[in-house]
Automatic annotation (TrEMBL), chains A, B, C, D, E, F:
InterPro entries: Asp/Glu/hydantoin_racemase (IPR015942), Asp/Glu_race (IPR001920), Hydantoin_racemase-like (IPR052186), Iso_Racemase_Enz_sf (IPR053714)
Protein name: Putative hydantoin racemase
Pfam families attached to this UniProt entry: Asp_Glu_race (PF01177)
Similarity annotation: Belongs to the HyuE racemase family.
Signal peptide: none
Single GO MF descriptor: amino-acid racemase activity
Length: 221, 221, 221, 221, 221, 221
């Protein structure tokens, strides 16, 4: 049996700190006999994918990077905007996983209805638009932001934001959510303690995306 | 770091041959450092889950078995009827994965629209009802059965049915499917060669369910 | 012409007081030339159907009771959880009516959009899940609970709760409801005065279920 | 207790033979202690409601007739086009029941998904439009017409059309229908034998409408 | 090339002041080489279309007027209730445009999701019902009324209501609206300044309806 | 009053013959007092937009061209793939109209349900995906291809394909379509004769897009 090529987790912006945080989040998926998981940064990209033009340009660069790595067994696009998801799927037969979609699908596998904790009110419409595109609005119990908007740094620091996240999660439970999606990769370090406090599954989208890619790579897909 | 308990793959009927086939299908997910994967049969059940009463009784037995195994880290209900999925979710905080749902969610993570190959025309309405319950009908490109109904035995034997499956898959591609779900666990041995022939991802529901469970167990959920 | 067998109204819990209240609510449907209407309690059940396990066990008992009464012409499952609705439909060709579904269908026959008065905020997600399963969310104007949660006893007592129910109903009218469903069987005694006060139809689910069963039995179905 | 006024079943066209057939179909609902059921013809209308202008004019006449009969306790609009359904609901607080909607709602109370037997291919799009308006398309298993179009006279005569109806019903069962609606009032006399042959409930829309009206009138609504 | 007949903009009530305002709003569409645009009042109608009976009667009068003007190339029904939209479409092959539908369709052509500014809370359920009928609820970001209800006169006067409209529009932007529909013809004079202030397209339904009619007439439809 | 800048109709490929055909189709919209309508080709593009990479690259070029023409009052993206529709909308406040969406919206303004004539079976899934994205599937009566696939050249030539188009349109009418969209720009020259033959509106998407742009430009939007 031949070894599987690595799963590439592509951070489509050029912020190396983000890439390192992604690598920490997916550490549990590096297993004996399983594929390597490489987290990459795109140096030519801006520090953040902010505008729609950034998304289009990042899409082409992500697709170029995927082409340049024929050894890889799967591609994870590690950005909520999922730049190039449709493009890569036409250019490679390898599994291509979008981070936002993966978080939603994982939550749908855990409960009838799910909730999302947004990092700020302003992100909610964009998330709802993606749920509409996915055709899964009927599974959404609700999406709420913490009582005050969090910076990305605060979102990962329990001393700065755990009470706010727990409060948001409790509200979503009352709205009927049986599972919670963290609506910002920065919240990842609080996944476990939040799940413990709420008593229902809490999903980190990066982990969900890598789990989905792993599921395909292991069966040879 | 404490060891993870095993993932239980529960075959809710009493047919040991089915359980053994499940175990072969999930072999690729037994990895160094990952949880064990145990496939179990429920001896008190009938040989097959055929009637709605079977489903209710199997649900209670599956829930009892889950209770009797507090060491397990996750439960996979390895039957298309998913007996007890909602019941187990109220009785345990561990991940509970239904096989049919998992196959659909995996396919939704691979393509905009998916198709299903049924083992026979008669299964299609029941599958559609589950897609409606899941709220994902808008993602379905179509479901088709082979030109003649297959026995479960034939469904896993390329010499008996590969041409029929390829024909059904080709039709689904023409209907807009970007990924295919095998609508019967028996087809599992043909997953790889069918994917190769069709050029789009082909999903085996048992594998999808275990991959989903694994994704939760590895992050501690 | 042969006499019709009785309509069985099965209270799947063991609380006789509930069964007696059901019998009072359906009194208007006992007509000359029509079938008898028998309200039954299941003695082996707990006093209330509280957990999902209760629902599964009540489903099997309800199905057993239906089997034991081949003389009955129709079965009404008089509990909002509708235990065994799908099971009974596979075991008998007689009409099987679920109380929650019947209330919703009756309201849909009276107005374009309906509202629901819940007994407490906590019931709303469960009701919404059932409306989603029924595929009728687009007909829902809204669901509201009284300003403070009611006990079942209070819910049927005008001096304790009429003002709260009228307030909730008025809010639903403002949200576009053209008919109101009482979201708790306990509210039944206030149906008429609430309808009078609001000027739009108010539906009691038990009565709706028996009316639906009667409609089938009279035509021989 | 005051006597209930009659339920008016208004045939909005001027064909007395149709009105007489309606009266025969609703005979089982004339019960001791229940309201009278009067079937009326609108003499000023054309023999059939054929054009959209006919519908608008019939709507106003139906509303006038309802106004002229304040003694009536409920109004059934006995025509698939349901002329004036929305108009009457703004002009009276009495229950106003549309025949087509009532048939669909009755079927939804009997099975997860329903099928419709149309009298001819040409009626199907109009029926589908009404199901879309009702927001219940997800409950439709399918609608089929007999292999050859039937006249209204043939549709009620077993010797002329029973085999065709059974064939259509069998096809709908294969498509997943758990209940069947007769898509033409003319088929009414074959309801019972068709139900017997198919083994699933068969719904006559006129009867469903009167049953629904009766359910409201008996509780005082 | 033959000259095109005029586009008729029919105000189905008898209020001439309304008709004059309509004529001012559509002035930009009177172009060299294009059709004339005539705005008409129906003298026999009441001053306002208030009841459902008004709607039915206005429908017949609007259809009669359309018949009496075979020279017209298209008909715009300039009333949010769109009386006779379905009737006219069966009686003429000329384009028949409803004002409310046209506003929504224009907004759907400008942004993924749209918002509506209602003149008062009370109009919102009626608008939502029309969006449901159109099957476009998934495109709605939200509908809001100004903080206090406006009279029709106030709604067109910037000194009386511009701040309120801007506030409502800002709220809709936050809810994800990429385009705004003025939910009352009276607001028409403020369209341009509101669009300027909000930075997203603002749609006047009368103008949208005439633009749509013009698009058909110019190509000979 | 200042003159309006031109409406740009951007053909995102480099095939000048296509651009010239677009210009002929929109000739009726060049009116006295209205804006000019300029049809442009993007020379750096390939001859046809075939791959998803073509779409991404065309999107960036279309956005660049829109930026380079600040004098233009509106942008029409004259390609069924609508490259850059979302990108342009974030980079300009001018109206940006996609050709495929515009055709659908125009049809929705003319009839309850619409049909589409595809140029070949293979285009249907892609069209359906766009209707799903638009959230308007419930308005679709059906989409059919001619009995044999047409070349683009044949699609515009009555002697080669009129009978096939009429046959397809007739089938769509039977499926409930009240308006027809030409699913390929090449069919444009047959719009009028097909409308005449079918007796229901036939929509050309290029014309619909320009009409929509014109409607915005004339009111100053």
């Amino acid at each position: 049996m031949t070894a599987k090529g690595p799963i590439l987790v592509i951070n489509p912006n050029s912020d190396v700190a983000v890439t390192e945080a992604l690598s920490r989040a997916v550490e549990p998926f590096r297993l004996g006999g399983g594929p390597a998981i490489e987290c990459l940064t795109i140096a030519e990209s801006p520090l953040g994918i902010m505008t729609q033009r950034d998304v289009y340009e990042a899409a082409l660069r992500t697709a170029d990077l995927a082409k340049a790595r024929p050894d890889a067994s799967a591609i994870v696009i590690a950005c909520y905007s999922q730049p190039g998801l449709d493009l890569l799927r036409t250019e490679t037969r390898r599994p291509v996983v979008g981070m936002q979609d993966a978080g939603v699908l994982a939550a749908m596998g855990l409960a009838d209805r799910f909730g999302v904790i947004a990092v700020a009110e302003g992100s909610i419409p964009r998330h709802l638009a993606n749920l509409a595109r996915m055709g899964v609005m009927s599974r959404l119990a609700g999406e709420v932001a913490p009582a005050r908007a969090l910076t990305v740094a605060e979102s990962g620091d329990p001393s700065a934001s755990f009470d706010l996240l727990r409060e948001a999660g409790t509200k979503l439970k009352q709205m009927g959510a049986g599972a919670i999606i963290l609506g910002c990769a920065g919240m990842s370090p609080q996944r476990g303690i939040l799940e413990e406090a709420l008593g229902i599954p809490v999903v980190d989208a990066t982990q969900a995306a890598v789990a989905q890619a792993l599921g395909r790579v292991l069966v040879g897909g």
